[in-house]
Write a sequence for this structure.
């Protein structure tokens, strides 16, 4: 029986059976998964409550003992004798099993430590000498609040959590600080035993008052970024967050249920299809398949790109005629060989596989003709499933013509831009002489016309300069033109502000800089860096109203100095942010003549800053407007 003669109602019956089986199976599987997950969640909630209670009880005991010692010092008005401390500290330390040591530091000098054995290096330690820890200690003293900080690298070796309480006498007189070092390893060992018994995985991190989180200092940090249960741990002077997930897998019978159901369905459908189909339909299918194969082969042979199919090991099974023409091999000679023989550098094959892991990704390399000559090549790979077998489709494109066209375009831009600079400079210079009165008195109307001509000439000269710099970027010669030397940023910013005021007298430009950064230096090209900053200031003025303030600031971010230009203009639409630093792209309103630009300035700026080992970026300003920033590594020590 021909498959085309099967009645319509039989096809509808097959589809109904299939749809009913799929719906019933997936409904059953979904309910089974929900029940398993519900049981696991109940176990996680119970374990989380027990572990949180354990941590809070184990850690709060030494913290409250420290508070008691603080109260004792305040009650004695700070008049504590050494003998009294030597009796009191051991008694407190022995009341909690997780105390590693207790230290008392009148006037920020660690005078009493118990136990002394193993902590000799910490005795008489002056806290302001701890460059890494002192900012946090100073903040605790200033804010008059106790904190549990850590993990902290100890002077006497190892790391631990430290509970610090500033001691004030008579409410305002700072006396010193009391520190309790918590042996966090013993706490983690206790926690590890509990988690192993309850078959759960736990990660712990700290939270700031603003809600910012640190990395996990216990357990796997990835637990905070999946579907793990999360809850807060309240400690005296700290807020921790715990993520918990059952370590055992959820009992999942979905595979078994699907297997049974779909097996029965497949057997039923196969039986029905066997009754519907006949040997005649199989012969028709074979003929149709042969016609399809020939049709696809004709298409492949007439495609300009080289196309090959390989097995999972990379052995060529089929290649179109364009492949043989492109690489100069004899027809059918490539079948059975590894496709890497088409590459000039076959040793980079693993790198090529990684770079083309997605079908839409291209990899640029060099191909090898049969005569061993090389040529530029673009490669794209795609996986294929043919008759339940995994194949690999490789498309290879000759880039020789494209690269030659790109070279000619760059050469044309460079030649035209260079040849036009001299006459345009002469024209703007002559106009400047006329404006200065070299050709006689100039009326107000004539002066306005000359100013318009000079402004447009300067704009055209700027466009030519940008085109030349874009050409240098494309040919990788821009770095050779930079002269990197120490530059005092604050002085350069002052020069930029002066230049901006000369061009835009009405601009409300404000310069701010911390006192300790006024002598800070970076390694940069003075003129090129000034060009980038002037461009950002010019853009800020263009897109801001005349009375809107423009902030130019210099600040420190880690080991880098940040120059920031912020305006209160119209800002940049979110869809246009990825295009900001692209060549020949403008994100502003092209219908507004005040906003027209070449679309090259930010692309040139990014390349210049990159050659200075820095970074330029954009972020929306607070409220409304734009904020562009430049980060450069500083090379000079910033004065204290």
């Amino acid at each position: 029986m021909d498959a085309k003669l099967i009645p319509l109602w039989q096809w509808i019956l097959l589809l109904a059976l299939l749809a009913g089986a799929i719906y019933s199976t997936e409904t059953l599987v979904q309910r089974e998964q929900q029940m398993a997950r519900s049981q696991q969640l109940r176990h996680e909630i119970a374990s989380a409550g027990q572990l949180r209670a354990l941590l809070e009880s184990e850690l709060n005991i030494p913290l409250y003992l420290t508070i008691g010692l603080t109260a004792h010092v305040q009650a004695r008005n700070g008049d504590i004798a050494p003998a009294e401390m030597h009796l009191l500290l051991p008694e407190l330390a022995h009341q909690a099993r997780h105390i590693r040591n207790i230290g008392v530091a009148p006037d920020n000098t660690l005078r009493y430590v118990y136990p002394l054995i193993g902590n000799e290096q910490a005795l008489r330690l002056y806290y302001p000498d701890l460059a890494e820890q002192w900012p946090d200690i100073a903040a605790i003293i200033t804010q008059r609040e106790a904190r549990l900080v850590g993990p902290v690298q100890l002077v006497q070796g190892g790391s631990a959590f430290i509970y610090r309480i500033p001691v004030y006498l008579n409410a305002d007189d700072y006396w010193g600080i009391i520190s309790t070092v918590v042996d966090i390893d013993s706490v983690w060992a206790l926690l590890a035993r509990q988690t192993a018994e309850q078959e759960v995985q736990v990660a712990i991190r700290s939270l700031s008052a603003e809600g910012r989180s640190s990395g996990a200092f216990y357990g796997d940090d990835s637990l905070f970024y999946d579907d793990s249960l999360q809850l807060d741990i309240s400690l005296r002077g700290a807020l921790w967050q715990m993520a918990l997930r059952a370590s055992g897998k959820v009992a999942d019978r979905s595979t078994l249920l699907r297997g049974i159901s779909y097996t029965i369905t497949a057997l039923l459908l196969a039986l029905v299809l066997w009754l519907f189909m006949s040997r005649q339909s199989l012969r028709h299918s074979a003929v149709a398949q042969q016609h399809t194969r020939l049709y696809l082969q004709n298409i492949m042979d007439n495609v300009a790109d080289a196309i090959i199919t390989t097995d999972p090991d990379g052995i060529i099974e089929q290649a179109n005629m364009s492949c043989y023409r492109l690489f100069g091999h004899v027809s059918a000679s490539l079948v059975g060989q590894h496709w890497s023989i088409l590459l000039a550098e076959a040793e980079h094959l693993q790198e090529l596989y990684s770079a083309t892991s997605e079908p839409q990704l291209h990899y640029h390399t060099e191909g090898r003709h049969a005569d061993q000559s090389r040529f530029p090549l673009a490669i794209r790979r795609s996986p294929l499933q043919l008759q339940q077998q995994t194949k690999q489709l490789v498309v290879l494109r000759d880039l020789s013509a494209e690269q030659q066209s790109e070279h000619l375009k760059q050469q044309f831009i460079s030649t035209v831009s260079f040849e036009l600079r001299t006459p345009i400079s002469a024209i703007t210079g002559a106009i400047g002489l006329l404006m200065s009165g070299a050709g006689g008195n100039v009326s107000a109307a004539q002066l306005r016309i000359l100013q318009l001509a000079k402004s447009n000439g300067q704009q055209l000269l700027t466009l030519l300069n940008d085109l030349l710099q874009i050409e240098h970027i494309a040919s990788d010669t821009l770095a050779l033109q930079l002269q990197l030397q120490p530059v005092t940023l604050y002085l350069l910013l002052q020069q930029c502000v002066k230049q901006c005021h000369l061009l835009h007298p009405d601009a409300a430009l404000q310069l701010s800089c911390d006192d300790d950064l006024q002598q800070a230096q970076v390694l940069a090209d003075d003129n090129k860096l000034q060009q980038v900053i002037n461009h950002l200031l010019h853009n800020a003025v263009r897109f801001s109203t005349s009375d809107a303030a423009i902030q130019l600031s210099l600040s420190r971010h880690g080991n880098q100095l940040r120059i920031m230009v912020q305006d209160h203009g119209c800002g940049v639409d979110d869809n246009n942010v990825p295009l900001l630093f692209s060549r020949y792209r403008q994100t502003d309103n092209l219908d507004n003549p005040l906003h027209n630009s070449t679309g090259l300035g930010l692309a040139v700026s990014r390349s210049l800053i990159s050659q200075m080992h820095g970074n330029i970026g954009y972020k929306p300003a607070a409220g409304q407007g734009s904020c562009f920033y430049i980060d450069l590594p500083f090379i000079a020590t910033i004065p204290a």
Q: What stands out?
A: The first strand starts at residue 99 and ends at 106. Residues 482-633 form a domain with the Heat Shock Protein 90 fold (CATH 3.30.565.10). The first helix runs from residue 8 to 75.
